[in-house]
Structures are given as structure tokens and as C-alpha cells.
Amino acid sequence: MSDLDRAIAQLRACRLIPESQVRELCYKARELLIEEGNVVCVDAPVTICGDIHGQFHDLMELFRVGGDVPDTNYLFMGDFVDRGFYSLESFLLLLCLKVRYPDRITLIRGNHESRQITTVYGFYDECIRKYGSANVWRYCCEVFDYLALGALVLGASSELEPSGPSMNDNTQTTMPLDDAELETEILNSKGEVTGSTYRPRQRTLSDSSTDTRNISPPRDISATPGQTPLRTGAPGTGASGSGGGSYSSRTGSVLCVHGGLSPLIDTVDKIRLIDRKQEVPHEGAMCDLLWSDPDEIDGWGLSPRGAGFLFGGDIVKQFNYRNDLSLIARAHQLVMEGYKEMFDGGIVTVWSAPNYCYRCGNVASILELGEDTSNGGTVTRSNGDYGRSNGIISTDKPGVRSPGRRYRVFEAAAQDTRGMPAKKPVADYFL
Amino acid sequence: MMRNSTMDFPTAERPSSISIKGFQIITQKRPILKAEPIEHMTKKLGIAPPEMIFGDNFVTIEHEQSKWGISFNAFDALDRVDKTGTSMLKVAYSKEWQKSREKTHEGIKEVVKPFDWSYTTNYMGTVHSNGPAFEPTAESIPLELLKQPDPILFFDEVILYEDELADNGIAMLSCKIRVMPGRLLLLSRFFMRLDNVLFRLRDTRVYVDFDTSEVIREYQCKEMDYERVRQTLAATRDDIPAVMRDPNKLSDILPLLEMRSERVVLEDCRT
């Protein structure tokens, strides 16, 4: 067993590794991360996770529900530290896994991976408490500076393989199975299906892949009249797309970023130009990517707090269209259901810290994107204008088909596994 | 909303209560609200609610004979937050942030839906009464009686809402209640720390004497700018970051800006 494997085993048991080993680990991690671009390309299948916030036992629950590294390919969208009691154990374990299995786990930066924020929200104090000095905090902060700012998931399948029987069968298949494909599926932590949505199958997809390998625009799109997607789950997730149907025959990429978009960034390539190896600044594109939030507004807005941007559905739609994206996955905001799709499924918030701060009682989720095997595993990497350059498709219809999305919803680890007394308020003589 | 109704929250509890000398005290603690009730609340309030709303939580004190009661809940507290944005604070680096953006995005000057995002509230509870109302008084809550080590028969702490101010501090409204054989004390405290800007406390205390059926309600406003708090603490041997997270300790440091007392004596049984 190598030192690294030993460290992993130790951290999995929620026991810290010696300071000298942390230094070495952080050094190796930095060497790895420096080679990554600002936007890491990740091939599907992949499991996308949101904020962890030092909730170590819930991270273990996440791995139990989503599968272990390296069996499952993971993408964590930042905010590993602060708030929870085990930021060190959580972050160091993720970092060990990154160094051990660099191609099976991707870590991108959240706004809490910063010197300034960690001094206020717990990670700094935890380092002092557990290691007796700020050294480990300093090593970790140096790693933070090298974390990628985003990731691009390529080759995700538009259709999900059904996971099995539904818990209570209300999935009415009014459409012949041949004409409907599974678009989203919600699973509980036992792997039971608790909800799903379908949409009309893309006729051209399978046709084209057998007809010809060389699909060149423009295509005749007039054959498919606008159809309303079939919903069989409860409505409201926006999971069924824009309602008009989409005509392109492939799934666009999925951009993963901690916060959201920036008015300074209109293409994914512009993210690639940022000089990221620094503390998260208070201004500029890098700050926005880690801090901004989607909101039900038109265009861009300023947060009432006097700093930070809000962006509306039209911004998401334009950005996705322009960059051949079918979805933006982000974290950063607590959502009680564990995930929240907005703007006709153009953006989703994934939240992976159940019972946040040990008192919110919320559930968490992870998002699984499957691999598109219809093209013999070939991943389209074009930045191109495929499927929309014929001028017929209006801009309010996405040029690409959104990926099939499987949300695994999970609850906080049982109280007795976290070694903390059950929370009962202690009576005190307050005045 | 997607259906996942089979999920039961582990922390869901039934209300706790105690009946004593004609008074009933009830507290309820539930998880934060889900998307649908939040949407509903957003519409009713007209502002974006805080990140964590414990909308099902409450503390209620009821006098059984007179049907008088006072309760504390998140919605009524949030309804008293300034919704116009006239008392809007700005985060510490706001100037720097906005200056750096003046040239690049001139189009984006509009603040979306301005309101007091610190969720400061002067909420003093929701009173249910057909009888006498609170009247101003010079009398204050008898602290000496409350300092006696009487047994605490019932104690609870209930959070109503909390917001991280987008990682610029904390805003939190919570209620504590302790019931002794002869009296009770409730403290509803709004605590806000806006990093590098301001500390703020808004306390409402409700004192009930079970034997005289007298209720005293006291409201206090305390506030001090961040730097002055830091300087005050620097002169002590305290762990500064820890104190800055502890409203109880801060309460001793922050100067009192405003205080009001009211009193009501509940009617005895006359049925």
C-alpha cells in the first residue's frame, strides 16, 4: 500500500494526516492542477456535485449514493471548505483522490476556496485548532489558487437508461415507448425512482448515425413540426425543455462553474484567457464566475448588496446558444430539493450539502450525466455552428439537445455516524 | 416541482409544549421551506426571502382564559423588513467593485428589486388579542427575579430565518424561551454582522409573570460599526473572531440606540 493509499484510508476514517504529508500532497496537487486549463474538459459519464462545506460524513454518504472514486467519475464544483466542522478532512480527502486518480475526479474552485473567505467562515480556525498553526491553511490556499475555474462536460447522452421500476408507478406512458425518451429521473438514496420526465425521441439521431457519419448542415428541419414534450412526472422542473422541441441531433456540452456567468464573458474561450493563479479578486470575470447568481430577471442586474451580478434567462439562453451548450450546471446557492432547474432547463443549481450547517434539514443531490454511445463513442468537440447556420431555426430554440439528467437525492448521514451528540438545545439562564 | 414526496425529513419533529398556570407555550421546529412554499412566500412578501427560511417554525405563548397570545414566526418578521431599499446597506467592497465596473458595463446600473437585504426587522411578535392591548410603561423586566436559579421546566431555541449575506456576514432571527415555575422569558433576537461594515442587534424580550398575569415586552436596538467593535475587542484578551460570531458577547459591547417597554395585564377568568 502506497503512502497515498494509506492517507486515503486514514482520511476516509475521518482521521487527519501529518502536516508533512499535507505539504507533500499539496505540492503534488499543485503540480497536477497547474497543467489543467481554466476550463477542464471532462468526458461523460460524469457525476456533478455542488457545495460540500466541510460536511465530511455527508461527503461519505455522497460517495455511498453515487459510487466510489475511481469507479465513478466525479466533478466537484467547489466550496469544499468552511461552515462545516470537517473542512480539512473533506478537502484533503478530495485532494488525495485527485492526486491518486487525476482522470477520475475534477475539482473546480468555489468562492470559499479563498484566503479571505476562509479566515472568516471557519476553515482557517479549523486548521489552527487541528494542526496548531496556520501552515496547513497556507498549503491549502496555495492549492486553491491553482484550481480550475470551470469544466466542460463533453459527450453526454440525451437519453437516460431507465434505472428500474418506479417507486409508485405513476409514470403513465401515453406515448409509445419508441417515441419517448427518458430525459430526467429523480432517485432517492436507495436508488428508487421517485420522479421522471420524458420527451419526444429525436428521430434524426438514430437515423443519421446509421445513414451517414458525415452530418453537414444545413439539414432539412421542416419535417419535424413543433411538439410539446411529454411530461409524466410532476411539472415544474422545466426539465422538458423549451416546449417547442429541439431539432439538432446532438447533445451540446455542459458548462460547470461554481457561481454563474459574467458580463465580461460571452464565450467559453474567454474564460480560458483569465490568469487564474491568484486569490479570488473582488472584481473581474474570475470573481463573477465564482459569485454570480441566476435570477428571474431580464438581462443583467446588480445585486442589491452593492456587489455581484444577477443574470436572467435570456442571458443563459444566449450564452448557451452561442457556445453550443445545452446546460450550465452550477452550485453556490442552497436549494432545499437538492437541485433546481431554471430557464427551461438551461441552468441547474446542484447542492450537495444535506442538512446544511447541521440545522437546515434540506436534502442534497448529485447530477449524473450518461455517456452518449450512439456515435461509437466519438465526441463532437466542434465549437461550430452545426445545426443552426441555416437560418431557419429561430434563436429561441436551442440548437442543441439537453443531456439526460439523473438526480440522486440524499439525506444527511445518520447522526450517530458523525460522532456528534444529537442537537438538543441546552437550557441556559439567558437574559 | 418534481415529485419526491416520499422523502421524510429526519429532523421533522412535532411541536413541543408546556401548560403552566393557565398559560400554554408551544414551539415548533421544522426544516427550511421547500421551493414551492418559498415561491408562495416571495409573492406574498414582495421581496426575495432569506436563504434559509424556517417558515414552519414558531414560538407561541397563549393565555387560555383571556385567549390572549403572542407568537413569533418568520413570515410576520420578514413582512416588517424594509421593502423599498431606502435603508439599504452596501457590502464592504461595494465601492471598489462598482468602480472597477463603471467602464465595462455601463448598461448594468440597475439594482434589481432593491430592499433591505440584511433582513433587519423590528418585529416584536404577532399579538392575538380581543382584550386589552400593550401600553407603554416605565416598568422594566425584573432581571433580578430572572437571575434566580429557579428550575427551568421548559427550554427551546427556534431559528426563524438566516442569511449568509452572500458570504458577507450573517443575518439571523431566532427565539429562545425558558419557562420557570413562576415566570417565563422569551428573547427574540435579530443579529447581523456585515463584515467590515456593521454589527446590529434587535432584541425583543417578553416576560410573563404567571401569578399576576402581567406581560412586559421590551424592544432594544443596538448597533456599532465593525471597526469600532474590532478596536474595542483588541483591547481585551478575547478571541476576536469568536466574539464577532457571538451575539451574547456582542450585546455587552454594542451601544443601545433605542428602547421601548410595554405592558399588559391579562384578564382573569370571568366566564
UniProtKB/TrEMBL annotation, chain A:
The active site is at 112 (proton donor/acceptor). GO terms for molecular function: metal ion binding; protein serine/threonine phosphatase activity. It is an enzyme of class 3 (hydrolase). Gene3D superfamilies: 3.60.21.10. Belongs to the PPP phosphatase family. Its EC number is 3.1.3.16. Residues 194-215 have a biased composition (Polar residues). The keyword Transferase does not apply. It comes from Aspergillus avenaceus. Residues 235-246 have a biased composition (Gly residues). It catalyses: O-phospho-L-threonyl-[protein] + H2O = L-threonyl-[protein] + phosphate. The keyword Signal does not apply. Residues 189-246, 377-400 are annotated as: Disordered. This is Serine/threonine-protein phosphatase. Keywords: Hydrolase, Manganese, Metal-binding. Residues 108-113 form the Serine/threonine specific protein phosphatases domain. SMART domains: PP2Ac (SM00156). It comes from the Eukaryota. InterPro entries: Calcineurin-like_PHP, Metallo-depent_PP-like, PPA2-like, Ser/Thr-sp_prot-phosphatase.
From TrEMBL, chain B:
InterPro entries: Phosphatase_reg/MetRdx, TIP41-like. Signal peptide: none annotated. Pfam families: TIP41. One of its GO terms (cellular component) is cytosol. One of its GO terms (biological process) is TOR signaling. Belongs to the TIP41 family. This is TIP41-like family-domain-containing protein.
